[in-house]
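Exercise 4. Each item below gives a protein and its sequence. For each, produce the structure-token representation.

Item: Amine oxidase (Friedmanniomyces endolithicus).
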Amino acid sequence: MRGARARLAKNSKWNSKSYVNGSACVETSPPDFQAPKENVWDGLTNWEAASVTQWLFAQADLNLTRSDDAGDWDNSVLLVELMMPNKSDVLPYVDGNATAPTRYAHVVLDLRATDSPTYSDILVGPLPVTNGTTTWQPLEYPYTRKTGGSIRNLDADSDIIMTDFIYPITANISDITMDLWGGAAMGADNDTLDVWGIDPVWQYDNKLTRWDTFWNKNTDVFDAETLLPLGLFLKTDVTGRDPANWTFEGWLYNDIFYPTTADFRKAYWSGNFTKLGANVEGDWARTDQQGPVPPMDTASPPSAIAPSGARYSVDQARKYVEWMDFSFYIGFTRDTGLALYDIRHKGQRIIYELKLQEALAHYAGNDPVQSGTAYLDSYYGFGPYSFQLVPGYDCPSYATFVNTSFFVSETTHTHINSVCLFEFDADYLMQSHTNSAYTAKTKNIYFTVRAVADVGNYSYLFSYIFYQDGSIKVEVRASGYIQAAYYANNQDYGYHIHDSLSGSMHDHVLNWKVDFDILGTANTMAEYSELTTNVPVTQNYVWSDHPRNTMKLQRSFVETEDDGKIFYTDNGRTQYSIINADKPNKYGEYRGYRILPADGTIHLTIENSSNLIDAANWAKYDIAVTKQKDTEPRSAHPYNGQDVYDPVINFDKFFDGESLLQELGMHHIPHTGDLPNTVFTTAHSGVHFMPLNYYAGDISRQTVNMIRINYDNGTVSEVETFGQQEALCEVDLAKEEFDPFSYTGDVVIRKFPYDPNDPYFETGSII
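Answer:
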């Protein structure tokens, strides 16, 4: 229902050079090297996905139709991807000499040739496809819902609901919409009005209830439609697949409900009807430069460079990265986009899996569309909307770029340069100290893996950041167009931000799975979540004549599932950490990693959401500690919204011990500064994982990117640079600009059935 806009990300061709006295100083690329193991999380190859698809179409019992030809009553293949191998099968391979886990495909079928359509997950394998060996079976073991890997499909009739049911209703009041707004919603290509509404649909009392509303369509390339609500709402009952049973249930305008169209029309033309204003597109809703240019703004701004070339290594084929003492593999899926696996520091695994699980945008408002909207974005998918990144804007121009792929509707899509890797010099130091005798400074050089996903109206910028003190940060920022509310009667839910517009309040809550492996896996039951809380106390001391008001540390462990649902304490009093109780350091302190909320993390404000019921129970907590199980690989499922009372994964059904799931999020009450777009600078959240008694000291002391300056009576007597190399070249920033006119490329689409002689087959569809 969100109406994500189609976009085209083209293959970029640009040059990045530095100059010394007018001569090019070519930057070095990451050195060629090979990952120590195959990337078992990297997804299916084009050949694997194609062969699985071809095999599925040969299975008569599935009765499949090609997606291009499938109608409302046909079965089709939605998704073919790698079934992520079980951790218990992966560890003997990545940590030892075992063979790589057998590969299987996870397939999502859209089964509509029935009165009870479903989305059905199946497992196909083993791979490669071999007649007589390869089979398919329902995929059920990773889910709490035990219905053969299937959940009802509320989208099966979405097209016909609009064309044959909703549009005739809205066309029937075209006299009113023409009078109000000069346009109509007839379902025609030249309509000036659009109609869409809540997600997910209401599922009360065994009914499916829709609320839809009118929006002014945008008239140019700026997809500002979510800023153009018009304040007229219609309610329908679309239960079942028989259109004869669908019913219209009323209109809502200016907080007055009209149960029939006749009632609405009579009131409208009565002469006493209050007509409210419209939201109309204009420059205020466009993202181009507007207003007077600030002084000196046309001069080139500061630009980051890498004068020594890349100081990290990337195996592009296996998507494996090494930077300083860190190493990890990159994974990517249609549902949740970028993920990192087998994250090691100094050769020791810290995190087995760091992966987004779900992103929730839960709205509130006086009208039924704002109140009824709770987007679960993995349904739309982060992979399809992770487009090509712009060097010099999304990432530094010297970054290394990685392609991503996914296979949907019998088509391989490869988004080139959709993940970037780069080092950066922070605008603050890692360490600093000065006295009269010396000053010591250490640069804070960090490494980032980044992707940007434009899911519907919002742009999510995901950054995974690695620091030389051994810490890791996950950060998400949001930009794009808000989904605004109509201003009438909405003052308790948002600011009045434009002529007829209210900034509709909403919570963004994003859920990450962080599967810690602290100091090995042989004693995993010794891994605990430790809580260390600063508590105020009145304490007697042998050295004091009076009790003293002070504070102490109070330590406890999360040892049972009842303790595993955690809310952050007030005043940031409690430290949350994952430790290995079997391996203390030499001082007897438990070694581990601390979970440090950063940039305003939140949990969902709404309690017992009427929209979601049990579909997003993970959003209720700041941290949830559960035992890692192969049968519980995810906290959410993209089709949870299809049955909120019995979702595919009900997160509340598993709690007992070891792996960590972390909430990031932000409360968003849009204001005038959100027009035309929300900005990344303020809409952000993050979490930091930092070593806690893990090393003997601060290991960032190992870098040579530091300086010590000694003084003798106020005069510099010595400068120590610890063996740093001087920059290979100086840079003329005026010649270091990104050329937007070189940002061009090609689109190649390859669909099933496949021609093995196609030279582009291994590239797939580049969009």
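Check: Residues 317-408+420-430+443-516+562-568+594-702 form a domain with the Beta-galactosidase; Chain A, domain 5 fold (CATH 2.70.98.20).
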